[in-house]
Specification:
Elements: H1 5-19, E1 31-34, E2 42-49, E3 54-62, E4 68-77, E5 83-91, E6 96-103, E7 110-113, E8 119-121, H2 140-143, E9 146-157, H3 164-167, H4 194-198, E10 209-217, E11 222-227, E12 229-234, E13 258-259, E14 262-263, H5 271-275, H6 298-309, E15 310-311, E16 313-319, E17 327-333, E18 341-344, E19 349-352, E20 365-369, E21 375-387, H7 395-398, E22 401-405, E23 408-413, E24 430-433, E25 439-445, E26 463-464, E27 468-474, E28 485-491, E29 493-495
Length: about 500
């Protein structure tokens, strides 16, 4: 991307923060792309849930056998992508971290449990999720029970770093325990400050992370599984490169306006944080909009990430045959929505970050509800369904309008209503559609809603959406004492829109 003086000035400011390495400047990645190998610099887990007996397992693998990884792990709520839990994970080379997210029966909050001895900051992460950022007018615990996960490699930990030996496993165990009642290894304590991070000898991130997720329900003997979407930082030739270091302290209680001379507006596109509606703290960073390549601004990064995830339509099957008690839910997650639009819960109104960006703006995304109750971002789309014999469902021709409401929307098919039993038993952003056919396929059209002054065409850029269809069924022909429950998961197929070319500064 050709840079003018303003762009270069911003890049210099960000580099001074330590987000770029002069020694690696000639090798720095210039763009982002969805990884064709499943490994990447960043990962997005499209859905987690702990509703109605569900639990979610998450495994994160560092396949880099030379470098450790300093990783930001953040869970975001399904309603409006509010941060509900985050921490720093320190993986040794070839390390795997595994955890379970379930519902705390005493508090109703989602909670994380891991027996893993990989190092984290804070040291103890076996705790309830946090509700301080979600809408206080609704059930706060419920807002933590569903959502999606951001996983970002903040920096490599090379063997030359003083923290390398503190996080590297030897004979199956770290040299200094990083979990339980043991005190934090002395080598890790400097990571709690900006000065300590600067002196820690961390290197620019490279690829190597991948993750698997599973949702299971013991009582129903049903499970689903899949892989995280991996994002690569790449050179102009599409090959993986070095990203910027985006390591920040995992501290709380220190509101942030500037970070080493850099304003927060150069570090995130989250409109609640940049507008001051929510006080930003160090643990809020990085997010998926924090500049990670040579593209210097958060708005440009969010637009670039949106463009590689954009679809003009998504399609999948549905399976609701009563003979086998079949149920199907479709999940639609929009992991960049938060970087274009958020909701101020005090006023119940939308706060937009970049009104000229095509993916989410006032033309296609607005607030359903308002102050004093449920308030959720809804993005206009439409859908159509067919049976297995080419017949279009008249229920979706008479009323084809459909809005994706929430950062993670769950569409239940033929469940009866949005509160009836369904495959996932979602309870935050669930909607229901009643069809005339039990089985078939459908398509959700996500064209976006943007008018470029030079190209008066609506829907040319699509929307950044990901997800799967979740189905379950029960066989009645299996003998007593044998489980006849089955879980099926199918990734959404999609059509790609025209590529988005960000405006030059």
């Amino acid at each position: 991307m050709k840079k003018n003086l303003l762009t270069l000035g911003i890049a210099a400011a960000v580099s001074s923060l330590g987000l770029a390495s002069p020694a690696l400047a000639q090798e720095q990645a210039t763009s982002l792309k969805v990884s064709p190998t499943g490994k990447g610099h960043m990962l997005i887990v499209p859905y987690y849930t702990v509703q109605s007996g569900n639990a979610t397992l998450l495994n994160i693998v560092n396949s880099d056998k030379v470098n450790g990884k300093a990783v930001k792990l953040r869970f975001r709520g399904a309603a409006n992508a509010d941060s509900v839990f985050d921490f720093t994970l320190l993986l040794g080379p070839g390390d795997v971290w595994a955890a379970e997210v379930s519902q705390n029966p005493g508090t109703g909050f989602a909670r994380l449990y891991t027996p893993d001895n990989s190092c984290t900051m804070p040291q103890m992460v076996n705790t309830d999720f946090i509700g301080r950022r979600v809408n206080p007018a609704v059930s706060v615990p419920n807002e933590t029970r569903e959502g999606y996960v951001e996983i970002i490699t903040m920096a490599n930990v090379p063997a030359s770093s003083p923290i390398y030996n503190a996080i590297k496993h030897t004979n199956g165990a770290p040299p200094v325990p990083c979990s339980g009642d043991a005190s934090m290894p002395a080598a890790l304590r400097p990571l709690q400050t900006e000065e300590g991070i600067a002196a820690a000898g961390l290197a620019n991130p490279t690829t190597g992370l991948y993750a698997n997720w599973s949702i299971f329900n013991v009582a129903d003997a049903t499970s689903w599984s899949g892989e995280a979407t991996a994002i690569l930082a790449v050179h102009d030739d599409g090959q993986p490169g070095f990203a910027r270091k985006v390591m920040f302290p995992q501290t709380i209680g220190r509101p942030l306006v500037m970070y080493e001379g850099t304003p927060v507006t150069d570090l995130t596109a989250d409109p609640l944080l940049t507008s001051g509606a929510v006080a930003i703290e160090r643990y809020d960073l990085p997010d998926l909009s924090t500049p990670y390549t040579s593209i210097p601004t958060p708005a440009e990064q969010a637009s670039l990430l949106s463009s590689i995830l954009a679809k003009s339509s998504l399609s999948n099957e549905y399976f609701t045959d009563d003979a086998v008690q079949a149920q199907t839910d479709w999940v639609f997650t929009m992991p960049t929505l938060r970087y274009f639009m958020a909701i101020n819960y005090t006023t119940g109104s939308a706060v937009y970050s970049a009104p000229n960006i095509p993916y989410f703006n006032h033309l296609n995304t607005s607030v359903a509800g308002g102050a004093g109750g449920r308030a959720v971002a809804c993005t206009s789309t439409s859908f159509q369904f067919w049976n297995r014999s080419e017949q279009i469902d008249p229920a979706t021709t008479a009323s084809p309008l459909f809005s994706l409401c929430g950062a993670s929307t769950v569409l239940s098919i033929n469940a009866g209503d949005a509160f009836a039993p369904s495959a996932l038993a979602a309870g935050v952003t669930r909607q229901n559609v009643e069809l005339n056919y039990a089985d078939g396929w459908g398509e959700v059209f996500t064209p976006g809603n943007y008018r470029n002054p030079g190209f008066p065409i609506f829907g040319r850029y699509g929307l950044p959406v990901m997800g799967q269809a979740f189905s379950k069924a029960t066989s009645t022909n299996i003998g007593a004492g044998v489980s006849g429950n089955f879980g099926l998961v199918w990734a959404h197929r999609f059509n790609e829109p025209l590529p988005y070319v960000p405006p030059r500064l």
